[in-house]
User: What shape does this take?
Amino acid sequence: MAVREILKMGDSRLLRQAQPVKAFDTDELHLLVSDLIDTMLSAQGAGLAAPQIGVDLQVVIFGTNERNPRYPDAPPVPRTVLINPAITPLAVDGSTGVIAELEDWEGCLSVPGLRGVVSRFARIYYSGFDQYGDPLERTVDGFHARVVQHECDHLQGMLYLMRIRDFRRFGFTSVLFPGLDVAQDD
Ligand code: NI
Assistant: This one.
């Protein structure tokens, strides 16, 4: 168990297509998940993806089971280990079939000190596996859906900045949200 260094934007390892995990319930995978959790908690992150600590595998973690001081208005998301994920956008209203998107502020531990408004699917179905190889599937919306999309983007070499459409709604967290209780520089 260890708090690992979080790679910052500009490091080319954040731009790779992560490889799928082929072996589950191994010492290596359990150690990776443990390090991701320690690192996320240390940084008060809402989630963390393996590429952010330089590991080229499709592993993300998110959720804290309690409110996050970096995102005080966000509802709790259950602590989740998600491996080899797949995401399908869903219609918010099944009868119309319209896939809705929602805008909200995002930050990223690999882009410390900044926030920007990003549009994400409002409602998604996601599936994958936990570190033991047990399948996981959920239909979620709101902040939970946003966190999953943000973290899974890291597995495609995508940072949230690449999805910002209006850079007038982008800036330093300390200026945008001066009262926010942020322990780290993010
Ligand atoms: Ni991120």
